[in-house]
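hey so i finally got around to running both of the ones u sent me last week. sorry it took forever, my laptop kept dying halfway thru and i had to restart like 3 times lol. anyway pasting them below in the order u listed, first the sequence line then the C-alpha cell line for each. didnt double check formatting much so if smth looks off just lmk and ill redo it

first one:
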Amino acid sequence: MELGEILVWGELPSPLPSAQMVALEHGATVAALKMMELRALSQVEQQFQNEILEGLLSDQPGAVERARKLAAQMRVRLDPPFHVAVVAPDLPVREVFALQERESRSSIDTSLHLARRYIRVLNPEAVFWRQGARLIVFFPVRGRRASKEELVRALKEVCQRVAQENPAHSVSIGLSPLAPELSHFAKAYRAAMQSLELGRVVRAQAKGEVIAYEDLGFLRLFSSQEALEGVAEFCQEVLGPLLREDRNGVLLLTLRTYLEQGQNLRRTAQALGIHYNTARYRLRRLRTLLGPAFTVPTARLTLELALNLLPLLQTG
C-alpha cells in the first residue's frame, strides 16, 4: 500500500550511512502508522455520518430522533430551521456513474471539496454528507433569515468560484424551502433533489445554476413516475403530429420562439436569424400540423403547457 512520499531537504551522501537509513525507515514507519490511524478514524467517522443521514431520510418511527442523538454524540448540531442543498457536477447522471478515469473522478472530488469549503465560509455551522457524486448540505438558519433571493445569490457565487478554480467540472445546486423541524429533513432533501433535477431540465445547457424549489412552479407536480407517464400521454396528444414530422427539431424551436416573441412573426425571424419568408413558411406548416392551437385561446394554453412539460420527457 502506497500512502505517500518522503521528501528530504539537503544533501545526502550516497550510499546513506546505516544510521541515517534506519532513521528514515523509522520515520516512514511512524508516518505510515499515523496516516493509517487517521484514515481509520476518518472511515469510522464517515460511517457514523452515513448512519445519521440514513436516519434522517428514514420513514421508520424514531429514526430521526436516533439520528439526532447520534449527531449530538458526535458534536454535530442539527438545529432547525434549515435548508437542504444538493450540490452535484454539471454532468448527466449516466455520465457521472460511467466515469472510469481516475483523473475525472478526482476532478469531480475537487469541485465538491471546493463547494464544501465555500459553503462553510458562507455558513460555518453547515453539515455535509457525501453521497456518491453529490454533496448533501444541512444549512441551518440562525438570527436574521436571509431571503430566498439572497441565499440563491450567495450560493450562485459559490458555483462561480468553483467554476473559476476547476473549470473542468462546474457544479449546480438544488435548494429546498426552509424546513421548520428536523423531522422535515427527508421532505426537504427530496425538494432539493427535485429542484436540481427538474431545474437542469428546464434550464437546458446552463451550468453553475442554483435552483430553488419555489422557483419550479407547476413543474413540482410532475416529478413522480406516475405523473411523468401522464405528461407523456398529454404531450403526445397535443404535440404528436409535430413531433412525428419534425425530425431535426426546427419546427419545435420555431414554435417556442414564436410564442416567446408574442406571436410576432418578424421578431421570431430575427430571433432565429432566418429570413422572414422562411419563418412564415414554418409557421404555415405548424398551423397545418397543430390545427386551431394558434387561434383558440384554450387550445393555445394547452399548447404552451405541453411545450413547458415536454423537456421533462427528454432527460437522459
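and the second one:
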Amino acid sequence: MSKTISIGNAGGYWGDDPNALERQVFGGKLDYISMDFLAEITMSILQKQRSSEPEAGYARDFLPMLRKVLPKLMADGTTIITNAGGVNPTACAQAIAKLAKELGLSPRIATVYGDDILPDLDRLQASGIAFDNMEDGSKFAPVAQRIQAANIYFGAAPVVEALKWKPNIIVTGRVTDTGITIAPMIFEFGWKLNDWTRLAHGIVAGHIIECGSQSTGGNFTDWEKVESFDQIGYPIVEVSEDGSFVVTKHKGSGGLVSVDTVREQLFYEMGSPTAYITPDVVADFSSINLEQAGKDLVRVFGIRGSEPTPLYKVSMAYEDGYKSTGSVMISGPNARKKAEAFSRIFWNRCPGPFEETLTEYVGYNSCHRSLVHHDDGNEILLRLGARAKDEKDLRLFGKMIPSLILSGPPGVAVIGGVPKAQKVMSYWPALMPKTAVQPKIALFENGELVNEKQVNDTPVGNFVPNEMDAQIATKPSQSIQEALSEHTKSTSRSLSEIALARSGDKGDTANIGVLARSQEAFDFLDKYLTAQRVKDWFQELCTGKVTRYQLPGM
C-alpha cells in the first residue's frame, strides 16, 4: 500500500475560530497541522508591538489554543507548522517553551526567520534593488522613509530543513500559506525541489486548505446546501506520494466538502490561472482535475507545474496619514432621504482639509454603490469617514458627528463615542532577487537554542509570467449611468442562478472568480462578462485596470 500523509488546517487568518485547532486535534489523528495567522497589514501591527515591547511581535492568540492541545499533539506525534511567529519567531518559541513547562512537557521547537528585511532596506537598495511597486510600477522613493514593515514571502525550503530536526512545532515568520503545507510532503516523500509536477500538486493542496473552512462550506455561494455550520469541520488533505490528494474533513463535523466548495476555493486569490506563482513552483490551475470520491471526499489530481521565478515577493506597509470614521443610525420612515440630508449637513459643517472623504449608506448601497436596487430601508447606518495627512486636521471631524443628534432630521442615534484618529497603514508589494537573502532556521529545546543554520537551497528558476491570453480594460468606456441603462434593457436574472463566485484581496487588489454552473452558462459569461463591462460597472470603486482570465476546464 502506498504511503499517504494527512495534513489539516486549523486557521486561515488571525481572528479565525479559536476552537478550530482543538477540533482538528481531537477529531481524529493527523500527521501535520498548518495554521496561518498573517495578513499583509498584520506585519506592521506586529512590528509596532515589538518596537514598544521587545518580547512581542508574534500572534499571542496561538498560545491559549496550543495550551488546550499540546499534550495530545505530543502523544499523537502530530507536528504543527504555523507562521504565528510574525516578526519575532524566537520570542514565540520561547513563550511556547514556557507554556509547555507549565504543562510538564518539553517539545522540540524550530523557528524559520530571516524574512524581516526592515533593518536591511537601505543596504539592499544600495545594492541595486529598486523595490518599486510590482502592481502599478510606482517608484519606491516617496514611501521609503515611511516603511514600517518589510517581509519576504519565503517558500517551503527552510521549513523542510527544519523538519529534519523532528520538531513538535515549527514557528515561522512570513512563509507563504502554501509553503507551510507543502513542506511536510517534500520532507515525508523525499520530493526533489525541482520535481515541478509533484510540487504543483502540493501547492494546490496548500491553496485549498490555507483559508480554513472556506473549502469546507464556509463562504460558499450555495450556503443553504450546507447542512450545519455548527462545529464546522476544517479541511484535511490526504496526500499520496505521486502528489494526488483527497480533500476531506473529520467525520461528524459540520460543513461540506464537494467539488463546488473546492473549486470555489481554488478561485480565491488565484491571479493568472496558468501561472499561480509561489517561491517553490509555478502551478497551472488550468490542469487541475476534481472528482467527487464520496461523501465529503474530493480527489484532486493531474496538475502541471513549472520552475519558479528568480524573485521573492516582498510585502511592505508604510505610514500613509490618518483616518477617522464615525457612524449614525437613522430610522425610518424616509430613512434614505434623512441619511442623504444628514451627509449634506455634515460635510457642509466639516469641510476639511481632507485628502479623501467617505459617505456610505450601510444597509442601502455601501457595497454596490450605483448598482443597488433603489428602495427605502427601515433603517440605514450612515458611515462617515475622512483621511488627512495630519492628525490635527481630523479633530473637528470627530467632534462634529455627535452634534448631528439634535441639529438635523429626527430618528437618529450616534453609534459609539467620539471617533478617534488612527494611523493609516498602506500596502506596498515589491520584488527582489532570491539570491539577495537566505532564510535561517533554529532549534530550541527547553527554551534554549541548541542549533542554528542558514538555508541555501531555495529553488531559483527563470519563469517569466505573461498576460497574452488575458482581457484588459484600463478605462471605463461609458458612464456608470449609461452602463446601467444598457443593462436594464435586457432581461435580468441573479448571477448566482448560473454561477458560483469567490473573491479575495491583497491590499487594494481584488480577485473575483466566477464559476459557471454549465457549459451554456460559461458560453454566455464568456461573451457577456468582459473586462470592459466589469470596469464600466465598478468604475466608482475600481481605480486600476481590470484583467480577465479564462479557465474553461474548471
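quick thing i noticed on the 2nd:
The chain has a mean pLDDT of 92.
anyway thats it, ttyl
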